Structures are given as C-alpha cells and as structure tokens.
Amino acid sequence: RRFFQKADNVLGYFLSNKLFEYETNRIQQKGCFDIVVGFQEGITTRFCSFFKGVSIVAWVQCDYSIYLKGIKHPYKVEQQVYNTFDKIVCVSKCTSDVMKKVFHELADRITYVYNTLDLSLINNLSTEPIFDDQFLKNDIFKIVSLGRINWVKRFDCIPQIVRKILDD
Known about the structure:
By secondary structure, this protein is of the alpha/beta class. It is about 45% helix and about 10% strand. The chain has helices spanning about 1-10, 15-30, 45-50, 65-70, 75-85, 95-100, 120-125, 160-165; strands spanning about 35-40, 55-60, 85-90, 110. Strand 1, helix 3 and strand 2 form a beta-alpha-beta unit. The longest helix is centred in the N-terminal third of the chain and has 16 residues, at about 15-30. It is elongated. It starts with a helix and ends with a helix.
C-alpha cells in the first residue's frame, strides 16, 4: 500500500487504480455478485468503485469533513469515487448529514442505518466485576479508550478531555 501511495504522489495519478481495475476484473470473472459493499473509507472504497455491473454500496463510519483534512488526494478524487456508488450508507444521521453537506451533489444516494449494537450485552458486561489487580490497585481516576489507533478515531483529543475534566 505504501509503495502505491508513494508512486501515486510521484506520478500525479493513481497507479493503484490499474491494480484495482485488474483485481476487480479478475474477481468478477471468478464469480457472480449482486452487490459489493465497501466497509471502510479510503482505499477500500476506491477498490470497490472498480466493480462493474453490480450494485455498489459504501459504508461510511466517519465524519467526512474531518476525514478529508487527513487524506493526501484532493476532494475531487473522493467525489469521483463516490460517484460510482449506488448507495452511500452512513452509521448515523449526523454522519449522513455531514456526508450530504460535503458531497451535496450525491445527497439523493446518501442514507443512514445505525450500527447494530447489542445494548443489553454491553449493559450486562458493564456491571461485571473487573479482575485486574493493576487496574484497581489505587484510587486514581482512570479512562480506558478502546479503538483502532487511527487519526479518524481522534485519540489525540483524550489529553484535552482529561485536562477539562480535571479543571472542572
């Protein structure tokens, strides 16, 4: 992936697109698909955009106004990618609203479906005791953050949040 990112930047176009086109053709020759879903922004969505003759759906999980600030290729490329999709499904109304604002010309294709969470399981697990002696060793306030280490997840905001909690 890094090789293609560097090559794309040096050449000024997406060399990876040639690989994606080749691979999606190869995959489609091996099987018959009714629908292709890209479950991740970025390179996964770009890859899925090369499928032909099937319904293509993008699953968007991030705030695209923030996401666009962190990507190296221009907005126009993202717009071209999403133009190939039949539906763009966001994980919340808020995410959908942002996506519609960023890509207003695609608003009729953008909808939302809340992530499915087993809330009763989460609530039950939250009441179970923690059996970690190191974690419970002292009376210091602790924050545990779980998630993929990626700038989109905004873990960089945690120190500011903790500072605000302490100040308040």
